[in-house]
Amino acid sequence: MALKIVKGSIDRMFDKNLQDLVRGIRNHKEDEAKYISTCIDEIKQELKQDNIAVKANAVCKLTYLQMLGYDVSWAAFNIVEVMSSSKFTYKRIGYLAASQCFHESTDVIMLTTNQIRKDLSSPNQYDTGVALTGLSCFVTPDLARDLANDIMTLMSHTKPYIRKKAVLIMYKVFLKYPESLRPAFPRLKEKLEDPDPGVQSAAVNVICELARRNPKNYLSLAPLFFKLMTSSTNNWVLIKIIKLFGALTPLEPRLGKKLIEPLTNLIHSTSAMSLLYECVNTVIAVLISLSSGMPNHSASIQVSFSRHAHTFSLKYLGLLAMSKILKTHPKSVQSHKDLILQCLDDKDESIRLRALDLLYGMVSKKNLMEIVKKLMLHVDKAEGTTYRDELLTKIIDICSQSNYQYISILVELTRLEGTRHGHLIASQMLDVAIRVKAIRAFAVAQMATLLDNAHLLTGNTQRNGICEVLYAAAWICGEFSEHLEEPMATLEAMLRPKVATLPGHIQAVYVQNAAKLFATVLRGQEGAPADSTVAQETSQLLIDRLPLFVQSSNLEVQERASCILQLVKYIQKLQQKDVEVAEEVTALFAGELNPVAPKAQKKVPVPEGLDLDVWINEPPSGSESEDEGRKSKGKAVFAKDESRHTKPRYTEVDEKELAKRREVRKAEQANNPFYIKASPSSQKVYQDGVGVEHIPVVQIDLSVPLKVPDQYVKLEEERRERNKADKKKKKDKKKREKGEKGRRRRGDSGPESEEDITPAHMVDIVTEEMPEWIDLRFISPLILLSLSLAPHLQVCDIQGNLQDGSQVVVSVIFENKCDSFIKSMEFNVLDSLNSKLQRPDGAGPHDGLIVPFQLPPGISNEARFIFSVQNIVMPQKLKGTLTFIVKTDDSSTHEKLDFKLHFTCTSYLITTPCYSDAYSKLLESGDLKGCSLKLEGVNQPFHHLLARICFHHHFSVVERIDSCASMYSRSIQGHHMCLLVKTADQTVSIDAKCDEPGLLGNVLDEIKLTFSQC
Amino acid sequence: MMRFMLLFSRQGKLRLQKWYTATAERDKKKMVRELMQVVLARKPKMSSFLEWRDLKIVYKRYASLYFCCAVEEQDNELITLEVIHRFVELLDKYFGSVCELDIIFNFEKAYFILDEFLIGGEIQDTSKKSVLKAIEQADLLQEVHTHTHHREKK
């Protein structure tokens, strides 16, 4: 044994330690890789030894090699060995190596759990500290879960050294294992008031980080933090707190008002730049959230900040902050224009770019010219292509806000070397010349000079980009040639032989515009007292020069040139006969281009009889199953509509009609739970809407637009709505009762019919003795219930609750559609043996649930009711009543509404995805009972059919092959339901399997019903 | 939260790297290479901050060494600069006017100091004194061990 120890230490003497390794690497600069590979071999030998000191030394060296970029993952297990040494020296090295090398997919991490736990509870605080440090780097979700409790205990350790580490590690644990947050939070909160400042700041740190992710959960801590902020003098802590407030203020504007003062005080008193910067950032956030603005404050912040912005590289941050201020308080930034312009001279490109952005944002009509001039100066000095290009784009963008002198700036820009913005400049030139009549003369003059000096631009191949400008120049000179002072000279310039070196598309424009110029020249010359020879010379010039272009390899140029050449030859012939041709030639290019505003189309009235909302073709079939409804029934409905109602409708496509449509849409969006609510007033308007108001309220049979989350279904509804109104005017107004309505639903294909969107759930209505008429209609997954006087009930969803197999949640939207205030609503359902409304503890089985809100006119709100259901095999119908008080100015009446809720078996199904292998396993298991169903005469595409089943009955498609598909769904109580759907010749056969035959039968019945209604 | 801290020389040799989020080796290498290029290309009078990928980079050069931190978008650049400076001060106190070679040859010590100062990318202790005290005591513990070890050997 003694010999072994001696041997071990002798070995060690020959071992390299870390210093030797580093030295060795430095001495082997030429063959570093080779040297290191021998070192790694040595390390492998060392790791095989039993002596932990040798191993630790080897691991230490490996950590160094890892930093140099060598793979050491093979030694992971040895690292764990060294970690578990009882000696601090080695443990420290082991944990260091682990924190450098381990990551989530390192599998030996699993082996460390117990070791780490042991170290965490070690009596030696440094053992604990080392373990915590290591853990912070390589914590995995598993480790976090297993060790969360141990670390939580350490948060109350006697030593602050451990406490602060534990608090900070908890953040990492929360990230990896969020469930630990809830139990740990109270203790974390306690630490905010820890006597040790280090622990306190650690807790602030962690809570700030958490709050940044999800601010609204931490609003309640605001007073505590406010206290800390006003009492703490530790800048590091202050910065964190102020940052936290920055995250909280958007949620709580009152906080912002309170913060402004202490923050401005800090800004004026602190000497720490970082704190100042944080304060300014938060103040900006506060100002933005207050939006009302506090110009004085912002100004003072500005001043203090820009004062510092002169110094050092704070410029960058200053600019960043200013761009934030600019968004809300542009004026206060204006005064720093000079400072920002100075920044353009900065050596740092990122600063220049920031400054440029800022300037761009600052441009207004007044200072435009000044800024552009300054920028132009910079263009000359600018170095670095990216920056210069950026600068050019910005100048052009800025200039495009104003027209005047813009052209000259553009021309100036073309003189710059090596820019790639020829295209942009050209298009801007064209844009301005076309848009602004007043500037054309000036533009044409400038362009003529440009054309004249074209050789300057094209001379250098480097400037290729810029010759794009000539494209614009040629076109402008040609199109607006009447403004040219010397058209002849320009024509001459355009036909120079040098032009042939330009790119093809530019030559083409040259040729075409030469012809335009020719026309102008001719007119000028013929108008002058008879000097026909001059005119003929002009023609001769074209005839001489054009053949050059006819030979061009570019097709476009060739075609245009030869065409024009022939034309000119013909003209020349006429001229020789002394015929005046100018008039006719000009006619070739007659007509002026008019700029059209992008919104001009809106001003054109829609011709009578043209309905832009109607589909020209069949609407594309989406996955939404409502489509099929329209497909099958829709046609008839459409045809009928058109013949009957088109006329009256379109004669009044006026302001009123448009307004009404808009209101209807708004009202629908307000009703629709998928929309963010519009202003409450819109609903009222809807009620007063044209058409509806003529009908005594009591007699409205169907008054509610259907809620389907689909754009065009909505359009369709509007139309139907109007038809209904029209129709009702004509039809005699009789009260319909339940039976008749039921028949109507299937039989009558009148325009108002809601069959388009097949109800998946039916609700029976108890109407006979009711003073008001109620219609309760369910549209899967939206179910609605309406009544004319008083609240408009909309059952928007009946949905099973996955977490509890016997719960079903019913969401009801109450909407007040009358003009009176509605309060004290009580929702009650007569419980059946099977289904019960869940009432609060202590309430009797017949007590109603008080709806926790009141409804002013036109307002809607949603309430959820939970039902417990024992047996989901059978569909359920529950009778219910809603009582409420309608309050008008002088009186209040107590009203009652009866309704029925229909829980179909489908509503107990939950769409659950299923993979095909799991699906086949399920079928193989043999636990499922079968049942089948045949549907005849279904003439819709297969994918519609599937979409319909998915949508209405909460199934998901597992696999689809041609005209055969397997589908899956699960009930809230975990029954599996599998469908095999096949289709052939309008016949659909559904083979279904489920472990609960009763449920299966009912669901199949419901599916059958769905298809029989379409 | 700080994502990582790198120390590298003007020649582009990595001297220290600390990652506060577990990152795969390959990604680390790629990021280090890319970032070193960006930072080394910058001129002395440029600002210490730059935006890189979705992170903010804060760097400062001390003699031949670049200290470079990557922080998240909402973090304060200036406080990060102070963190760097504080770390340099700590190294300086510990090694006694620190130079690049100190860090190369005692790189594990440099890590220990950093670990006492920052943990999980957050500042652990704002007081220089308590950080140094913690390191001294841990070192003392280490020496006791090595001494006993030597004695065992004898």
UniProtKB/TrEMBL annotation, chain A:
<keyword id="KW-0677">Repeat</keyword>
<dbReference type="InterPro" id="IPR011989">
    <property type="entry name" value="ARM-like"/>
</dbReference>
<feature type="region of interest" description="Disordered">
    <location>
        <begin position="613"/>
        <end position="656"/>
    </location>
</feature>
<keyword id="KW-0472">Membrane</keyword>
<dbReference type="InterPro" id="IPR058898">
    <property type="entry name" value="Mu_AP3"/>
</dbReference>
<dbReference type="GO" id="GO:0048499">
    <property type="term" value="P:synaptic vesicle membrane organization"/>
</dbReference>
<dbReference type="InterPro" id="IPR010474">
    <property type="entry name" value="AP3D_dom_metazoa"/>
</dbReference>
<dbReference type="GO" id="GO:0098830">
    <property type="term" value="C:presynaptic endosome"/>
</dbReference>
<comment type="similarity">
    <text>Belongs to the adaptor complexes large subunit family.</text>
</comment>
<keyword id="KW-0653">Protein transport</keyword>
<keyword id="KW-0813">Transport</keyword>
<dbReference type="GO" id="GO:0010008">
    <property type="term" value="C:endosome membrane"/>
</dbReference>
<protein>
    <submittedName>
        <fullName>Adaptor related protein complex 3 subunit delta 1</fullName>
    </submittedName>
</protein>
<dbReference type="InterPro" id="IPR017105">
    <property type="entry name" value="AP3_complex_dsu"/>
</dbReference>
<dbReference type="GO" id="GO:0048490">
    <property type="term" value="P:anterograde synaptic vesicle transport"/>
</dbReference>
<dbReference type="GO" id="GO:0016182">
    <property type="term" value="P:synaptic vesicle budding from endosome"/>
</dbReference>
<dbReference type="GO" id="GO:0043195">
    <property type="term" value="C:terminal bouton"/>
</dbReference>
<dbReference type="GO" id="GO:0030123">
    <property type="term" value="C:AP-3 adaptor complex"/>
</dbReference>
<feature type="compositionally biased region" description="Basic and acidic residues">
    <location>
        <begin position="638"/>
        <end position="656"/>
    </location>
</feature>
<dbReference type="Pfam" id="PF06375">
    <property type="entry name" value="AP3D1"/>
</dbReference>
<feature type="domain" description="AP-3 complex subunit delta">
    <location>
        <begin position="653"/>
        <end position="777"/>
    </location>
</feature>
<dbReference type="InterPro" id="IPR016024">
    <property type="entry name" value="ARM-type_fold"/>
</dbReference>
UniProtKB/TrEMBL annotation, chain B:
<dbReference type="InterPro" id="IPR044733">
    <property type="entry name" value="AP1_sigma"/>
</dbReference>
<comment type="similarity">
    <text>Belongs to the adaptor complexes small subunit family.</text>
</comment>
<feature type="domain" description="AP complex mu/sigma subunit">
    <location>
        <begin position="1"/>
        <end position="141"/>
    </location>
</feature>
<keyword id="KW-0813">Transport</keyword>
<keyword id="KW-0472">Membrane</keyword>
<keyword id="KW-0968">Cytoplasmic vesicle</keyword>
<keyword id="KW-0333">Golgi apparatus</keyword>
<dbReference type="InterPro" id="IPR011012">
    <property type="entry name" value="Longin-like_dom_sf"/>
</dbReference>
<dbReference type="GO" id="GO:0005905">
    <property type="term" value="C:clathrin-coated pit"/>
</dbReference>
<keyword id="KW-0168">Coated pit</keyword>
<protein>
    <recommendedName>
        <fullName>AP complex subunit sigma</fullName>
    </recommendedName>
</protein>
<comment type="subunit">
    <text>Adaptor protein complex 1 (AP-1) is a heterotetramer composed of two large adaptins (gamma-type subunit AP1G1 and beta-type subunit AP1B1), a medium adaptin (mu-type subunit AP1M1 or AP1M2) and a small adaptin (sigma-type subunit AP1S1 or AP1S2 or AP1S3).</text>
</comment>
<dbReference type="Pfam" id="PF01217">
    <property type="entry name" value="Clat_adaptor_s"/>
</dbReference>
<keyword id="KW-0653">Protein transport</keyword>
<dbReference type="GO" id="GO:0030121">
    <property type="term" value="C:AP-1 adaptor complex"/>
</dbReference>
<dbReference type="InterPro" id="IPR000804">
    <property type="entry name" value="Clathrin_sm-chain_CS"/>
</dbReference>
<dbReference type="GO" id="GO:0035615">
    <property type="term" value="F:clathrin adaptor activity"/>
</dbReference>
<dbReference type="InterPro" id="IPR022775">
    <property type="entry name" value="AP_mu_sigma_su"/>
</dbReference>
<dbReference type="GO" id="GO:0006886">
    <property type="term" value="P:intracellular protein transport"/>
</dbReference>
<dbReference type="InterPro" id="IPR016635">
    <property type="entry name" value="AP_complex_ssu"/>
</dbReference>
